[in-house]
Amino acid sequence: MTALHDTLAELVAIHSVTGNEGRLCTAVAERLLPIWTMQSVTRIGNALVVGQQTGRPLISLYGHLDTVPVQDNGDPVVSDGRMAGVGTADMKSGLAVMIHLLEDDAVRTGPYDVVGVFYDKEEGPSDENGLENVLDKAPWLAESEFAVVLEPTDLAVELGCNGAMNADLGFEGKAAHSARPWLGENAVTKAGAWLAEMHDRQPDPVTIDGLEFREVFSVTRAEGGIANNVLPATLRINLNYRFPPLYSIEEAEQRLLETAAAADWVVVKDRAAAGAVVKENPHLDRLMAISGAARQAKQGWTDVARLSGRGIAAINYGPGDPSLAHQAAESVALSSVDRAFDVLRAFLVDGREDSSEELAQLLGDDED
Length: 368
Known about the structure:
Distance between the termini: 18 Å
Strand content: 15-25%
Shape: elongated
Strand order of the largest sheet: 1-2-6-3-7-15-8-14
Structural class: alpha+beta
Largest sheet: 8 strands, mixed
């Protein structure tokens, strides 16, 4: 194992389930403080901002410290070139890459002011996400010319992201004894036609700048009834909506309300805006040339949306297969971690636009 792999194992061994990120935050701070000094390491609750502005173009790196709960996978285990353990893919491999980039002298003295943001509570409710507080307390981060969120992308460059919205829908009936259903109205079966329509509804593809996003409505929960012999008077349904960056929050809410028009009542519970697709950015062009990565739309929601809402051109790029995130068998290919570090180091060390092809050639042999 390399030093980078050892760092990943150390991060995985420090459990940091959402709401319990303090110990990991302290460990990262203690590791980076000797290099960056107190003036360049700011702790905001259980989040860290490492680096400062010195007048060079600002590029920021982002990674969340928390993981989903442990599922008998708390300890890092290495086998066949992979490391298994909670958070290995999502996203402690990205954190390990960030730490080593921030420790790299060539990165620190290169053409950019490189800042790392380690934040908490990403895996919890959107309105408790720690990045919002960081951006409020360090508004100068909005001056970043480019930002990389090191969520797992399997080394693809993912642009934009779908927005997310959840709403409670209610279908109202009238309770009655199940032996005499004609005296009431069954709220569950009242919703049947609408539920059948939702079952048959296909994702709607939306193309933005050559990238295909999919607009998706999904029924994710349903609750109704109080006893086996009582017609249910109310059926409560959660409708989850993923909308492309074509729509604003207001437009997306209107589309949800139209889709839920058959319900007796609708309450939108939470909203997270979509992330804008970065266009005409020389840093993105350089990263694409250096990495040789596939250019993809982000179907899920990430904090790229939160950053783009602050006017920051942000993309997702990181090691790890996102399909393995949150699973008991979560793991990451160590070669993927190495590749992400090499690509981002080259991206941050050499700022010349005309050198991208040369750097890409040097990295080409390491492609997975």
